[in-house]
Write a structure and sequence with these properties.
The protein is of the alpha+beta class and 298 residues long. Helices cover 31% and strands 23% of the residues. The chain has 2 domains: 193 residues, Aldehyde Oxidoreductase, domain 4 (2-Layer Sandwich); 84 residues, Aldehyde oxidase/xanthine dehydrogenase, a/b hammerhead (Aldehyde Oxidoreductase, domain 3, Alpha-Beta Complex), CATH 3.90.1170.
């Protein structure tokens, strides 16, 4: 988990973002996806002069809803409605924190990190508005993507304030809401991605293509710690599209184990090549044999 100190260090270095996002099956620079008028207030939030909020989501979404849950953390503290937040995928950069799926940990990992990001950006907008009106921050209120002058009721949108706000120092200790103030977190909200998922428009990792891209299918030992003794790749290399068979490692949290990767110009060719590949494995861990396990299931 990224600590408060690490987050603030990363946020203070943020500039016009360089990150990779998925867009219609292609990998693009964030500048191309967001537009030249977008300004990154920290590794997770970019806002343009039209007030469009783009959230770089560090939590992969495999259908469990982490994208919307994570966006809610940003929207709550930033004082924008959830439907105004465009979600894109993070790029794997270190300043974006842990970017993993599993263990139901997305919200727990990001609970403070993303709320801090939203709160810091909000305070920068409040300061920008206060300076514009020549008043104290306490006489301003952020609401629904705007800052309101509590004395005159004048309003400035985030889009109008973005160029001034981005020049201000990053707040070191942004104030977070308490749960009694929540208007988004913990409230029932319709999932915005459902229609794309059920109509097949959603882009998944397997949909991504880049120039000269290759695919790999991995052959593992039938036992979890079986060591590779030898292999025969003659038949695998005869499969149309297969370009190489490469010994590799299956990396686990506390160790790594032998494996073989069949590399090809398509997923189907890689899969067929893996089926044709012959490996000889040691008997280490034979009490966890895959074939025996499946036989027991049936």
């Amino acid at each position: 988990m990224t600590s408060r100190r690490d987050f603030l260090k990363a946020a203070s270095k943020a500039s016009l973002g360089f990150c990779l996002v998925l867009d219609h099956g292609k990998i693009l620079l964030a500048q191309d996806a967001l537009g030249n008028s977008d300004f990154s207030f920290n590794p997770f939030i970019s806002i343009n002069t039209n007030g469009q909020v783009t959230f770089v989501n560090p939590n992969p979404d495999l259908g469990q809803g982490s994208s919307q849950a994570s966006a809610a953390l940003i929207a709550e503290e930033l004082e924008v409605s959830l439907d105004k937040v465009k979600v894109i995928f993070s790029s794997g950069q270190a300043n974006e924190g842990a970017q993993i799926a599993g263990g139901s940990g997305a919200v727990r990992r990001s609970w403070e990190q993303l709320r801090q990001a939203g709160a810091a950006a909000k305070e920068m907008f409040l300061r920008a508005a206060a300076e514009t009106w020549e008043m104290s921050d306490s006489q301003c209120k952020a609401q629904n993507g705007e800052v309101i002058n509590l004395n005159t009721k004048a309003r400035l949108s985030y889009g109008e304030l973005v160029e001034k706000a981005r020049t201000l120092p990053i707040p070191e200790k942004p104030k977070l809401k308490n749960k009694e103030q929540f208007t988004i977190i913990g409230k029932a909200t319709k999932r915005s991605d459902v229609l794309e998922r059920i109509t097949g428009k959603m882009q998944y990792g397997i949909d991504v293509t880049v120039p000269d891209m290759l695919y790999a299918a991995v052959l593992h030992s039938p036992t979890i710690i079986g060591k590779l003794q030898s292999y025969d790749d003659k038949e695998a290399l005869k499969v149309n599209g297969v370009v190489a068979v490469v010994p590799c490692k299956r990396t686990m949290p506390y160790s790594s184990f032998d494996a073989l990767a069949v590399v090809a110009d398509s997923y189907w060719s890689a899969l067929k090549g893996r089926r044709a590949l012959k490996g000889v494995w040691g008997k280490e861990g034979d009490h966890l044999d895959t074939d025996i396990y499946f036989k027991k299931l049936y």
